[in-house]
Specification:
The chain is of the alpha/beta class and about 350 residues long. It has a domain of about 210 residues: FAD/NAD(P)-binding domain, CATH 3.50.50. Helix content is about 35%, strand content about 25%. The protein is built from 10 helices and 16 strands. It has a 7-stranded mixed sheet. Strands 8-2-1-9-16-15 form a 6-stranded mixed sheet. The longest helix is centred in the C-terminal third of the chain and has 27 residues. The two termini are about 30 Å apart. The C terminus is likely disordered.
C-alpha cells in the first residue's frame, strides 16, 4: 500500500490527508501545533467550498442553534459611501463557520478515515520514506522554501484582523464594506454571533480604526460583547512556477495564494486536495500541476479585479453605482466567482 506524509495540519493539510485516504493510501500527518488550530479569516464558506467538503465526506451541516455548526447566508452585499448592491448565490447558500469548528470537523473526518495524526510533532526529515510528501504548511511554508521550488512571485501583501461579537446577525448576506484604505467584512456565524474582519495594507490598522470609518457597523455592535480577542494574519497574492518537485507536492497557501478579498482560500485548498488525490490515482503529479493552474486562474482574476477597485476609489464608486443600478451585473459576477457561470478560460499547456 502506498504511503503519504502530510506536513501541516491546517484545513488544507487535513483535506489532503482525507482525499488520499479516500483512494486507499496510508497517510501520516505531522503538525507542530496542537488543535484547535485557528487563523484570522472571514470565516465564510462559499457554495463550491461546501461542495468540496461534501466530496471529502466532511460534515459541517448547520443546526441553526447558538453555538452550532455555523449559520447560512444567501449571498454577498457590497457597501460603500454612496452605493449598496447585493446578489444571491445562484443555487445554494454559503455558510458562516468558526475556523475552529471547521478544523474540528476536518479532524474528526480524518480520524474516522484512519489518518495517523501526530500533533505537536515535526516530521524530522523522515519524508524520504514515503511515496509522496505533501507540503501544507501555510504561506511561510518550510517545504516550499527548502524544497527547491523557486519561481515565486508575491504580487500583493495585506494585513487582516478578526474578532467575534455576541450579536444576532442583522443581514442574510455577508456584508463587505469598502473604505478608502480598507475593507470590513461582517459574516454571520451563529444565531447569536458575527465574525468581523478588516483587511488593509497598513499592518498597524485595527478593527477599532475601522469602526471609526464604518459608523453603521460600530452602531450595530454598540454594547455588544467581543467574545474572542483580536487575531491577525497576513494576506498575500503569491504565485509559483511549479507546485511539485520529485515526490513532493504543495497544497493550500504553501502552493500559492489569492488575496483574502476573494473569500476563496479555503475552497481552493479543498479543491487542490481532491485534485491531488485524483492525480495520484493516475500516478502523475504533472496532472496535479495542470489541475492546480486550472483551479487558480479564476480566483486570481477575481482577486486582481477587486484589488483594482481597492486601489482606485473613483473607479470603485463608479463600478458599485453601476452595479447598484443594474444588479444583474453583480449577480453574474458572483455566479462566475462561485463556479456557476463560465468565463472563457485560457488554454493551459
Amino acid at each position: 500500500m502506498r504511503r503519504a506524509c502530510i506536513v501541516g495540519g491546517g484545513p488544507s493539510g487535513l483535506a489532503a490527508a482525507i482525499a488520499l485516504r479516500n483512494i486507499g493510501w496510508l497517510v501520516t500527518l505531522f503538525e507542530s501545533g496542537t488543535p484547535p488550530i485557528d487563523k484570522a479569516c472571514g470565516e465564510g464558506l462559499l457554495p463550491h467550498s461546501l461542495r468540496a467538503l461534501r466530496e471529502l465526506g466532511v460534515d459541517v451541516s448547520n443546526d441553526g442553534e447558538s453555538g452550532g455548526n455555523g449559520f447560512p447566508f444567501r449571498g454577498i452585499k457590497f457597501i460603500d459611501e454612496h452605493s449598496c448592491v447585493a446578489a444571491d448565490f445562484p443555487s445554494a447558500p454559503a455558510l458562516g463557520l468558526r475556523r475552529t469548528v471547521l478544523h474540528d470537523a476536518l479532524m474528526r473526518r480524518a480520524v474516522e478515515m484512519g489518518v495517523d495524526l501526530r500533533w505537536g510533532c515535526k516530521s524530522n526529515g523522515s519524508e524520504t520514506q514515503y511515496d509522496l510528501t505533501v507540503g501544507a504548511d501555510g504561506g511561510n511554508s518550510h517545504m516550499r522554501r527548502h524544497g527547491g521550488f523557486g519561481g515565486e512571485r508575491c504580487a500583493s501583501k495585506r494585513y487582516g484582523f478578526r474578532q467575534h461579537f455576541e450579536v444576532a446577525p442583522w443581514s442574510e448576506y455577508m456584508e463587505m464594506y469598502w473604505g478608502r484604505s480598507c475593507q470590513l467584512y461582517v459574516t454571520p456565524i451563529a444565531a447569536d454571533q458575527v465574525s468581523v474582519a478588516v483587511v488593509s495594507r497598513d499592518q498597524s490598522f485595527r478593527l477599532a480604526d475601522a469602526f471609526e470609518i464604518f459608523p453603521k457597523v460600530k452602531a450595530r455592535l454598540k454594547g455588544r460583547s467581543a467574545i474572542t480577542s483580536e487575531r491577525g494574519s497576513l494576506s498575500t497574492m503569491r504565485r509559483l512556477s511549479r507546485v511539485y518537485r520529485g515526490k513532493v507536492a504543495l497544497v493550500g497557501d504553501a502552493s500559492g495564494s489569492v488575496d483574502v478579498i476573494t473569500g476563496d482560500g479555503l475552497g481552493l485548498g479543498f479543491q487542490q486536495a481532491i485534485a491531488l488525490a485524483r492525480a495520484m490515482e493516475t500516478g502523475s503529479l504533472h496532472h496535479y500541476e495542470k489541475a492546480h493552474r486550472k483551479l487558480a486562474w479564476k480566483p486570481r482574476l477575481m482577486a486582481n479585479l477587486l484589488l483594482t477597485l481597492e486601489a482606485h476609489p473613483t473607479v470603485r464608486h463608479l463600478a458599485l453605482a453601476t452595479m447598484a443600478a443594474c444588479p444583474q451585473v453583480f449577480a453574474s459576477l458572483l455566479a462566475t466567482h462561485v463556479r456557476e457561470s463560465r468565463l472563457p478560460r485560457p488554454k493551459l499547456a
